[in-house]
Specification:
Layout (H helix, E strand, L loop, with lengths): L33 E9 L3 E8 L2 E9 L5 H11 L13 E5 L8 E8 L6 H6 L5 H6 L11 H20 L2 E2 L8 E3 L5 E3 L6 E2 L3 H4 L15 H4 L7 H10 L1
Antiparallel strand pairs: 1-2, 2-3, 3-5, 4-5, 6-9, 7-8
Length: 243
């Protein structure tokens, strides 16, 4: 869509019908309040846009219908909503979501999240991956940077705080890496991109949950690569690699 264009026209078929589970009904999207501005990036399962929703700047992720692996696309969408009800200073907040879309949109679902800028820990460490559009929003405006100890400790504490909170809610991220850690304009780390996450319903059932494929091999815990059961320890391993 062009800059400032409404995401869906008012003639779109039943855009307000909520198809989310009742526990997520509170976060259904008011489509008339959503306007895309410009793309921020794209990944294996969809695209992310900067947008305006109800007068506030937000990020919008559209999960595409992947013809080669539609099941994986669907799992990615629902995994993102594992944190839909959570609020924490170091976790990207989900504002609204919907599985509804007009036939013209090749998406399985749309998720609206708080806008945290487009600078990640990966950009700061390696100085790569930013397009010219992204750099306009990168208030840190840095290429390759060598951290001083104080900054490294501050970022590490932010990530740990986010992980401790997620694990207290029985949620494991399963794809923690620099590219999924966003740096806000206030220099705060927020964990995002929960497309590989899983919710461990309780300590007993978590013993039975086996690893699903996905994530990034360079940061993935060995037990997950072996197909063993999922525990919060997998995120701790990924954090150690990131550190």
């Amino acid at each position: 869509p062009a800059k400032g264009e409404q995401l869906f026209s008012e003639k779109s078929p039943s855009p307000r019908i909520c198809r989310l589970p009742s526990r997520l009904a509170w976060c259904s999207i008011d489509w008339n309040q959503l306007h895309l501005l410009h793309p921020l990036g794209a990944g294996g399962f969809g695209s992310v846009y900067k947008a305006i929703y109800c007068g506030a700047t937000v990020a919008v992720k559209q999960v595409k219908k992947c013809s080669k692996n539609r099941l994986a696309s669907r799992q990615s969408f629902w995994a993102e909503l594992n944190v839909a009800h959570l609020h924490h200073h170091n976790v990207v907040h989900v504002i609204a979501a919907s599985t509804c879309a007009p036939s013209s949109q090749d998406t399985l679902g749309t998720i609206i999240m708080e806008y945290v800028g487009n600078s990640t820990l990966h950009h700061i460490i390696y100085g790569s991956g930013c397009t010219s559009t992204e750099r306009k929003d990168d208030v840190l405006g840095r290429g390759h940077v060598f951290f001083n100890l104080a900054q490294a400790v501050r970022y590490s504490c932010d990530i740990v705080a986010g992980l401790v909170f997620l694990h207290s809610q029985l949620i494991v991220h399963l794809d923690l890496k620099p590219a999924n850690i966003f740096i806000t304009e206030h220099n705060v780390c927020k964990i995002g991109d929960f497309g590989c996450s899983q919710k461990l319903e309780d300590a007993e059932s978590s013993r039975l949950q086996l690893c699903q494929q996905g994530g990034t091999y360079t940061h993935r815990a060995p037990e997950l690569l072996k197909g063993e059961r999922i525990t919060p320890k997998a995120d701790i391993y990924s954090f150690a690699i990131t550190l």
